[in-house]
Design a protein that fits this description.
single chain, 294 residues, Rossmann fold, 2 domains, eight-stranded mixed β-sheet, 33% helix, globular
Length: 294
Amino acid sequence: MMLIVGKEELPIYKYSMNRFYTILFLMMSFVCAFGHDKESVQELYEYGSYSSSDGLTINYRIISPDSTNIVESEESSYPLIVFMHGIGERGNDNKKQLEHGGDLFSNSSSRQSYPAYVIFPQCPDDYFWSLNKSPKSQKDIMKNQDETPIMKGVIELVENCANTLHIDKNRIYIVGLSMGGLAVYDAAWRHPDIFAAAVAICGAVNPDKLSSITDTSFRIYHGTNDDVIPIEASEAAYNVLKKHDIDAQLIELPDVGHECWDKAFASPDFLSWIFSKSKLHHGIEIQNAIALQP
């Protein structure tokens, strides 16, 4: 069988192969521009571990700024994002914590637009970021308790990075989902001087704790159909933040359950909102986020 193309006769299999390679090229171009497979994401993040003052070893992965499009100097400083994963990514393999969010910060578009350090600590098995034991109900989340050793270690790690890397201390951000969403609130109210912005995805907190926050901007995401952590938890947190005149937004995701993080990540301004925040300009969005310096 022959396919007539203009005046040239081409075997049908040759036409099919040409079409196949064209489609393959377009697919590969799309992946390079907007994302990576899991293996390449793992390769982009360096491995690390930190020994806390309580004797805990905290594994983490970190990616450094892609400074291709900016001029570096001794005085250059970059934002730091701390990503707190959910309960399903706990372990000691130092890999699973990149399952959700790893590609968001490592794809070429994000790295060119928002050069930053991004760190993913991993919570060990049998630990919970901000709770001493597994919560059996919403009431367990609301109970007063001391800062957990693992959260103390994470804060020490953040401070160590801030003091040893070229980090803009006015632009340290924390993002977390589910168990990590609880950790976002916990870190923000216990250490209000550290974080310029906090993003809590399907998290919860005792709202009374949020009164210590003064200049940390909040964005809260929650699915309206969440049957693990009801959306009322985020609504209560948002109401208290607004009562204390904190820069805060609540984004409700209609007809979405607990696993709402991909919907949150897909928000067109997810990254631009984060990187527009600074301790020096609380409540004011900086349009040229890359150029902002302390």
